[in-house]
Amino acid sequence: MAHTSPSALSDIASSADAPVQPTPAFSPLYQQIKGLILQSLQAGEWKPGEAIPSEMDLAARYRVSQGTVRKAIDDLAAENLVVRRQGKGTFVATHSEQHVQYRFLKLMPDSGDQDSEGPAQRQIVDCKRLRASAEVARALALRSGDAVLQVRRILSFGGVPTILEDLWLPGAAFKGLSAEQMAGYQGPTYAMFEVEFGVRMVRAEEKIRAIAADAQQAQLLQVPPGTPLLSVERVAYTYNDIPMELRRGVYRTDTHHYRNALS
Amino acid sequence: MAHTSPSALSDIASSADAPVQPTPAFSPLYQQIKGLILQSLQAGEWKPGEAIPSEMDLAARYRVSQGTVRKAIDDLAAENLVVRRQGKGTFVATHSEQHVQYRFLKLMPDSGDQDSEGPAQRQIVDCKRLRASAEVARALALRSGDAVLQVRRILSFGGVPTILEDLWLPGAAFKGLSAEQMAGYQGPTYAMFEVEFGVRMVRAEEKIRAIAADAQQAQLLQVPPGTPLLSVERVAYTYNDIPMELRRGVYRTDTHHYRNALS
DNA sequence: CAGTGGTCTAGACCACACT
DNA sequence: GTGTGGTCTAGACCACTGC
User: Fold this and answer.
1) Which terminal residue of chain B has fewer beta carbons within 10 Å of its beta carbon, N or C?
2) Is residue A9 a part of any domain in this protein?
């Protein structure tokens, strides 16, 4: 049966008189399995931090060999959607209790030590509901005028205000988010999004520029106006490449730097 | 024989009375195979762009199963050291003819089109031999005073000078590099390093900051002094994590941005 | 057609974690 | 010990490339 659709899966266009697809759209069994596991992840069948069924169980469920399930999970692990722990199981990745916290924050102290300075202090400057501008709507795949939440905050390291950022979130998914919630939660903001709103950020893209601090930025970051700052625009995505957050940050880079690994 | 050292490999401490290692230093067969293939890559047994032996051949050579070789090559492919092509073979990765040229250059035109503007025009400002400063020596794992080459150049897109960068290269490995060579070669600089000096860059790390253009930078990039610029400091490594290039660039980000994917 | 990488299976055994 | 993921093997067949 190798390489054809397994008994458990109704392959697309499996009937004899189905319209012929120009591209056969052949997809390996393990990718189909990966898709099914992905669906369960999206549907919340297993919550972040929880273990998913063992490879043997999944193999039985989908009526394929363990090796095929293994390859599917390997893919998901490579995409950081899932974490394997030998002897324990495979767990849904989470921004909480992940030993690498702040996975998406690439700003490092020049001293090198990743977090010798400890977690950032958060200060919420503003948190309000408003209607999406054309620009925000485009980034979040909404319509202009749709409800969005905007949060402005300052992150400080060792008492020094270092990051000033605005977050825009789709109002529908983040109904009820408050400034207190943003400020009070211990740990990464994305961890709070998982716990409070069931929104799990999976990947993000950033566009980075150098800008000069305007009057307001200068005041909030306690630097002279015109100071060069790193402008970081991020769009973060959940499952299925659905954008769920637009973030515009300005970073001071006098004592920190943005670190990136190329390979 | 699964999981123990194969007949072809003399495992460390395989004799019965060998000194006991505090850490058993267990390493899977496929990682040992990976290490052997890596050695051949470093030694230049197969040159960039060439095909390495087929999985069956390698399996025979190392006396292991094809699946084990496969896993080793999978790892190497994931690290971009090697490229698999179904039906053709597995090839040593190269910065030449790689369909993604300029793999390490993350600066994109705001227009989005990755290379609608075509390749950059290069202008060599300076190219000289000198002795490594303490800072350069540290980055390149040399001793202060060792010979290094320094190249200063400007990259322009559509006639607009956009990148000003200095490169420092170990004098020993790049003996004879000239300004003409830097300017004349078509294609990525790292491709030239492969062809002319047998140096293949495998990965790199970048530290990014925002700075204000000084007088010289402003003049060379044709912007007003004080213009915010992206400062990008890169250390590029060959096999075995040996640093082979220090690069300090300043980027104009008025029409371009540094793009980064987080996952 | 033969040769290559890609997929799938079935079974064995190892390393690790918990109980 | 039991159950988990991790490794290794052997064999079969599929998909792609080029002769």
Assistant:
1) N
2) no
